[in-house]
Amino acid sequence: MRAVEFQAYGHPNVIGKHKTTLEITTEEELTSQGTCIIGVRTTQTLRDLDDEIKTLAKSTMTQIQLSMSVNGLVERITGRGSPGLTYSDPISMVARTSSFECGRTLMVGADRVASDLDRKFVQMLKTPDIVIKCQLSYAKR
Question: Cβ atoms within 10 A of the Cβ of 133, count?
């Protein structure tokens, strides 16, 4: 198993209601249009992950999990890798329930997305500058 830890931050405009995706971005600002974005100013990008992780992400046999923790509340999103995942985007990472692949796609077949998060957790993400402790883990099934 490979894992990487990083941080993202809350923002007053976090809504967390998108039904097919969840996104974390390096962007500092967030409009009310970004219903899938649950964290801003992330310290990790897909493009900057190491080659071993990028190789793992290309396998349908790799389970990918994003764990997020805020003030003791933990949320986990689990999906899988796919051959078309390039991890080339320098700005955003997106967990998707679908099989859509682009440079921003972190995982496909996600079991949960923004709208599935506990509303108490989402409410905490509306606090400016609250720290979201994140961990990405990659394990062959």
Answer: 14
Using an 8 Å Cβ cutoff, are 37 and 23 in contact?
Answer: yes
Cα separation, 117 vs 5, in Å, equals: 20
Q: Which residues of 55-66 are buried (b: 16+ CB within 10 A; e: fewer)?
A: ebbebeebbbbb
- Taking 90 as the threshold, does the pLDDT of residue 73 lie above it? yes
pLDDT on residue 129? 86
Instruction: Report the relative pairing of strands 73-80 and 62-70 from DSSP bridges.
Output: antiparallel
Residue 87 CB neighbours (<10 A): 20
**pLDDT of the residue at 67:** 98
Give the pLDDT of residue 135: 98
Per-residue confidence (pLDDT) for residue 141, from 0 to 100: 86
Q: Count of CB atoms within 10 A of residue 4's CB?
A: 14
What domains, with CATH codes, occur in the chain? 2-140 (2.60.120.630)
| CA trace torsion 44, 45, 48, 50 (10° rounding) | 80
pTM given for the model: 0.97
Provide the β-strand partners of residue 108.
80
Residue 128: the pLDDT is 87
